């Protein structure tokens, strides 16, 4: 039917063309447009008889193909198709309808054709799944994940005598890639979908009950028509597609967006699983199970996760639905089971989901497009999710032996390891396979740096992960830097270069010095006492002590220097230096040739090499902040050091 043959109605500067279609006893109708070219102003509506369901407005940017365009399903057996465009539109729309799909599958619960719902007998569509299966809406924690799941249908127009034959082909889901760019990548099963169907598949999103109980049909489903096959893995029953229209960026989905499921190929215990599926083409249902174990499916060649369900079970059309681990990341796609379960016996059967990791040679170029080596990623909605990578895991120090592992190692991919530095220090093998390696040192006298490398083959390209660690006692300490001729009360820093293998340092000082001790760093700040002697450092780790290093330091006590008094102390403005037993400071032999003032970290704050004139001899301290300082006075006989206190 050509819309140009339909009489027009003019209203408020608009042209309206409308037709009514009746297909008695149809539960659902679909419309196939053999040609559709909408003008810039055109809006197309498809409305059911009760006006409870509307597809539209469909505008030009929503039309993904000019020929054989199918916008979706409509409930009931009677619809109206309305085309509205501007009266002054320069180029009017071209719309031709080739056929109407008469569908007995009841997606909306309209009950126009009751024979389609004889329980257990060819019942497909709304309300046909087992009564014990719970709506996904009952599980609010799965709302985001459910937005990625779609029911797959196919319309067969190959027979001109019976065009528009609808069949349901399974469940599938949008999957996220490492670029996090909302590319419409979609995973489905091979079984149930022939290759020739892919360009005309219909992907039905958001087909769910709007409430937990009782089950009701949703006010609207969202459709995407057509896909391109990116590849398939016949050995794993997986078909990988890219949708012709991206629901993540489409205007049609703006009010009810989709999600892109995160995934994982990590070799880790799967303590529980959840699933979201369309059993018998019904609204979205929930599925949960216990521990999942990787096996080869009995009687088949497929590598699968095997698990028993604890809530719900799969039925026809469930195939291809996502299987998520305890972190709600996809680990596989539901494929089959060990029997035909029902509401009373489903816990007695095993359910099988093919593993994503077995098809990684196909999937990695799309799910990890930048070849980052991603092994897991979180679900994407409006904002990017976290990426997870493998890493070599083990201690920084080994005293005897330890098992190093590749953390977040992928399952089903080849992993090897090798000692690429320091193999001569070890008695254990220098290479092997698997995600763990035992490292043992040759004897207690050896020490040095060792590097282990894990290599993963199959992450698009091979990836390597290194861990550098130390074995045995630390190396010998190097030379200590710092003053070797010092004064009592002098505050000094003594550093030594970081010692390979050392985790701490023990510092030994001459008697009556302060600042030494055990478990310190490779630099210390000391307050000099009256005794000369060695400053010694010993590098330490939990295996043993390394060879020490010492520096001899001479303390100038200035035994010939005059004893002095400093007053006032504490001070705020200035201090006076007076020889003891000479309060009038009339001793002409007492001279101060210069001074230095240090803070308690040994930092020089002020100094002078000028002789101090006057009596008493004064030094200004008003420019110093409140605190404790060390004053060095240069006398003719030598240098003396005293502590002063500045207050405000």
Describe the fold and architecture.
The protein has six domains: 3-103, Jelly Rolls; 137-243, Thrombin, subunit H (Beta Barrel), CATH 2.40.10; 263-367, Thrombin, subunit H (Beta Barrel); 390-471, Sandwich (Immunoglobulin-like); 485-556, Immunoglobulins (Immunoglobulin-like, Sandwich); 564-646, Immunoglobulin-like. Helices cover 2% and strands 42% of the residues. The strands form eleven sheets. The protein has an eight-stranded antiparallel β-sheet, with no helix packed on it. Strands 13-12-9-10-11-15-14 form a seven-stranded antiparallel β-sheet, covered by helices on one side. The longest helix is centred in the middle third of the chain and has 8 residues, at 360-367. This is Por secretion system C-terminal sorting domain-containing protein. It holds the Pfam family PKD_6. Residues 568-646 form the Secretion system C-terminal sorting domain. Residues 474-553 form the PKD-like domain.
Number of strand segments? 48
Give the overall form.
elongated
- In what range is the share of β-strand residues? 35-45%
> What count of helical segments does DSSP give?
2
Average predicted local confidence, pLDDT: 91
CATH top level of the largest domain? Mainly Beta
CATH architecture of the largest domain: Beta Barrel
Strand order of the largest sheet: 19-20-24-23-22-17-18-21
CATH topology of the largest domain: Thrombin, subunit H
**Content-based structural category:** mainly beta
Distance between the termini: 98 Å
User: Any idea what the radius of gyration is?
Assistant: 41 Å
Domain Secretion system C-terminal sorting: 568-646
Protein name: Por secretion system C-terminal sorting domain-containing protein
InterPro entries: Peptidase_S1_PA (IPR009003), Peptidase_S1_PA_chymotrypsin (IPR043504), PKD_6 (IPR045829), Secre_tail (IPR026444)
Domain PKD-like: 474-553
């Amino acid at each position: 039917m050509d819309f140009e043959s339909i009489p027009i109605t003019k209203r408020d500067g608009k042209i309206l063309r409308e037709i009514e279609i009746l297909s008695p006893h149809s539960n659902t109708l679909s419309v196939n447009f053999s040609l559709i070219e909408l003008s810039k102003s055109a809006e197309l509506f498809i409305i059911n008889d009760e006006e409870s369901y509307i597809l539209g407005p469909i505008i030009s940017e929503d039309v993904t193909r000019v020929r054989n365009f199918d916008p979706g399903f409509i409930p009931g057996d009677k619809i109206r198709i309305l085309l509205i465009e501007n009266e002054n539109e320069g180029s009017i729309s071209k719309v031709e309808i080739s056929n109407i799909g008469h569908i007995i599958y009841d997606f909306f619960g309209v009950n126009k054709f009751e024979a389609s719902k004889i329980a257990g007998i060819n019942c497909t569509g709304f309300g046909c799944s087992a009564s014990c299966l719970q709506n996904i809406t009952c599980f609010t924690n799965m709302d985001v994940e459910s937005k990625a799941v779609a029911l797959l249908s196919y319309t067969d127009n190959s027979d001109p005598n019976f065009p528009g034959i609808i069949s349901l082909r399974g469940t599938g889901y949008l999957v996220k890639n490492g670029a996090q760019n909302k590319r419409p990548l979609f995973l489905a099963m091979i079984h149930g979908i022939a290759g020739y169907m892919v360009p005309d598949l219909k992907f039905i999103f958001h087909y769910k009950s709007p409430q937990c109980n009782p089950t009701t049909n949703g006010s609207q489903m969202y459709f995407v028509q057509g896909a391109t096959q990116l590849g398939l893995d016949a050995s794993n029953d997986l078909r990988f597609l890219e949708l012709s229209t991206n629901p993540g960026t489409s205007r049609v989905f703006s009010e009810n967006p989709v999600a892109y499921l995160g995934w994982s190929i990590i070799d880790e215990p799967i303590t529980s699983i959840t699933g979201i599926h369309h059993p018998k083409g019904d609204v979205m249902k929930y599925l949960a199970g216990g521990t999942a174990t990787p096996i080869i499916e009995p009687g088949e060649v497929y590598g699968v996760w095997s698990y028993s369900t604890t809530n719900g079970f799969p039925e026809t059309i469930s195939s291809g639905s996502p299987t998520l681990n305890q972190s709600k990341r996809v680990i596989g796609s539901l494929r089959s089971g060990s029997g035909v379960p029902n509401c009373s016996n489903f816990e007695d059967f095993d359910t099988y989901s093919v593993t994503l990791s077995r098809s990684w040679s196909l999937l990695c170029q799309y799910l990890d497009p930048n070849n980052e080596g991603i092994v897991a990623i979180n679900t994407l909605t409006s904002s990017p999710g976290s990426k997870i990578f493998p890493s070599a895991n083990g201690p920084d120090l080994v005293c005897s032996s330890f098992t190093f592992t590749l953390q977040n190692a992928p399952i089903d991919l080849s992993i090897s390891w090798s000692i690429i530095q320091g193999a001569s220090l070890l008695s254990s093998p220098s290479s092997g396979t698997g995600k763990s390696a035992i490292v043992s040192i040759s004897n207690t006298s050896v020490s040095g740096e060792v590097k282990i490398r894990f290599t993963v083959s199959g992450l698009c390209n091979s990836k390597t992960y290194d861990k550098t660690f130390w074995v045995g006692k630390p190396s010998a300490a190097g030379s200590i830097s710092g003053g070797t001729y010092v004064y009592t009360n002098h505050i000094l820093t003594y550093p030594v270069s970081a010692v390979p293998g050392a985790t701490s340092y023990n510092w030994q000082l001459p008697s009556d010095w302060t600042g030494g001790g055990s478990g310190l760093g490779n630099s210390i700040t000391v307050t000099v006492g009256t005794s000369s002697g060695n400053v010694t450092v010993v590098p330490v780790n939990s295996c043993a002590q390394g060879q020490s290093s010492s520096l001899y330091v001479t303390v100038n006590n200035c035994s010939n220097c005059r004893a002095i008094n400093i007053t006032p102390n504490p001070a705020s403005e200035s201090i006076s230096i007076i020889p003891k037993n000479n309060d009038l400071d009339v001793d002409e032999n007492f001279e101060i040739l210069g001074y230095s003032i240090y803070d308690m970290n040994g930092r020089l704050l002020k100094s002078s090499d000028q002789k101090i004139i006057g009596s008493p001899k004064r030094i200004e301290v008003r420019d110093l902040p409140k605190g404790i300082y060390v004053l060095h006075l240069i006398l003719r006989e030598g240098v003396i050091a005293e502590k002063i206190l500045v207050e405000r």
